[in-house]
Write a structure and sequence with these properties.
The chain is of the alpha/beta class. The protein is built from 6 helices and 6 strands, in the order αβαββαβαβαβα. The protein has one domain: Creatine Amidinohydrolase, Chain A, domain 1 (3-Layer(aba) Sandwich), CATH 3.40.350.10. It has a 6-stranded mixed β-sheet with strand order 4-3-2-1-5-6, sandwiched between helices. About 30% of the residues are buried. This is Xaa-Pro aminopeptidase.
């Protein structure tokens, strides 16, 4: 079973509709060590900045214009590549007309980012044990 399907199984067990994965580690430094590169582990993307939003039935990778071509070659074709700022995660979430629960690792996000994600969206955030996801 591939990593995306394993993640989707965990989403089901955790009663989550989606999961957020940033490029950064818990230290928010410029570089992420190989063993902390959660985004690469799940998606295969090696660029220096990105965010994945993985639903049970659709997956998105948000990158800036520098990484659009790279993402298309490195990431599974099931991902929709979204170029920020043309398309932001908040815009995808606003299209959903029902309350959803998004799993995340709280050590990897700032409070401002999380506030922006939940603002004007029907979203519950749920901390999920990342060992279940990343082994």
């Amino acid at each position: 079973m591939n990593k995306i399907n394993q993640l989707k199984n965990i989403l089901h067990k955790e009663n989550c509709d989606a999961y957020l994965i940033p490029k950064n580690d818990e230290y928010f430094g410029e570089y992420v060590s190989e063993n902390k590169d959660r985004l690469k582990f799940i998606t295969g993307f090696t660029g220096s900045t990105a965010l994945a939003l993985i639903f049970k039935n659709k997956s998105y990778l948000f990158v800036d214009g520098r990484y659009t071509l790279q993402a298309k070659t490195e990431v599974n074709k099931d991902f929709k590549i979204c170029e920020v700022p043309k398309i932001k995660p908040e815009q995808i979430l606003k299209r959903i007309n029902k309350k959803i629960t998004i799993g995340f690792d709280p050590k990897l996000f700032t409070s401002n980012f999380l506030k922006n994600i939940v603002a004007n969206n029907l979203i519950n955030l749920k901390a999920v044990n990342n060992r279940r996801i990343y082994g």
